[in-house]
Amino acid sequence: MEMVTGSIEIETEKVLQNLEAILMKDGLNLTHVIKTTVYLSDLGDFSKMNQVYEKFFADNRPARACVQVAALPKGAKVEIDAIAHS
Question: What CATH homologous superfamily does 8-84 map to?
C-alpha cells in the first residue's frame, strides 16, 4: 500500500483505493463494508473528503463516524478504518 500526500481529495482517493485492494485480497469489495471511521486532521475538509467518499460508496452507504484528530501519522490529512463482513 502506498501513501500519498497532497490535497484532501487526493489523499482520500488513495486511502479508499488502498482499502479496496485490501478487501480484494480476501475476495471482498466495498459492498462488504458495514462501518467506517474517518479521521480528519481538519474537520473543515469534511465536504471535500465526502465528495470522494461518496463516489466509492455510491451503491452501499455503510454506517460512518467522522472525527477530527490533533494529528495523523506522517502528516496525513485523512485516515479511514473499516469493518467488513463476508
Answer: RutC-like (3.30.1330.40)
